[in-house]
Amino acid sequence: MKRFFALKIAVAYFILGFLWILTSDHILAFVVSDDIAMHTKLQNYKGWFYIAITAVMLYLLIRGELRRRNKLLEDLKKSKIKAEESDRLKTAFLSNMSHEIRTPLNGIMGFGNLIGEEQTSADERKLYASHINMNGKKLLKIINDIMEISRIQEKQLEINIQQVELNQLLDNLIKAYTINKNQFRQKGLELRILNDLDSEPVYLESDPARIMQVLVNLMDNALKYTEKGWIAIGYEFDKQEMRIFIEDTGPGIEESRQTNIFERFKQTSNHKDTGAGFGLGLSISKGIAEALNGQLLLESTPGKGSRFIMVLPRNSVRSN
Fold first, then answer.
1. Residues contacting residue 20 through CB under 8 Å, at least 6 positions apart
2. With CB atoms counted within 10 Å of each terminal CB, which end of the chain scores lower, N or C?
3. What is the reported pLDDT for 97?
């Protein structure tokens, strides 16, 4: 299109110049009659006018070409950055997957072989079976996380909007961590509930399963990296939005790393020290929050702890 545009301008300019030269002298002779001085002066004006038109057209052509070239260079630069980012993510994915998938697989295969040995007692088989089950759950979670981040990236995350009673949802979340296997007591941590969950119902329109998925990810992170102190859960709301937060007294996250932590396969240095995690949990949580027309925020101070906040509209409609 750009080339045809330039060709059209060139042809129009040629026709204009040809007609101008062909007819202008006759027109000038008719206007000024036999006044040679006036005729010469108008000829000069005609020449300057023609030069001005030439300069403007050349300027438009050169500017258009430069803009096209700059846009092409910018697109190439963006494509290069995107390709490099894709390559980095692929490398990070393969590096993480190699370790995270092989570890539970080795556990499953190792304990499976031990169960098959004749000298293995019934109690040992029961213990080995529990380890196989635990490693199987780890492997399943890794696979589910990979599938989930793929759905988020392709904007194919399934969202089921309905009325949610928040107090009941948080009560179910807390019971999951405290009734059968109290993980807080095991680590010597205090669980703080900052709202009265028996108070009047608090409603919003959203996907309860997706909200629970995000809160479970955030709670698991808090339990994983908090060695002492407490973990708190609570919410604040007004007519427009709901703010659900999980706060801990863990190691905290440096300000320079607080943005990167939501990227795929990114972890803080503190998290890497634990040797845990595939680096997808927070990225998935952020993607879910955004699919619910909300956002996931972080407030953190190194050495004092972190607060993750899921902000959701009270009346949510899935974005296209």
1. 46, 50
2. C
3. 66
- The closest alpha carbon to 279, from 298, 270, 266, 260, belongs to 266
pLDDT band at 272 (very low <50, low <70, confident <90, very high): very low
- Backbone phi, then psi, for 119, in 5-degree steps? -80, 0
Tell me the pTM. Answer: 0.65
Distance between CA atoms of 120 and 126, rounded to whole angstroms?
Answer: 10
| Tens of pLDDT, residues 253-266 | 888 787 778 876 55
Task: Convert the pLDDT of each residue in 146-173 to its tens digit.
Answer: 888 888 878 888 899 999 999 999 999 9
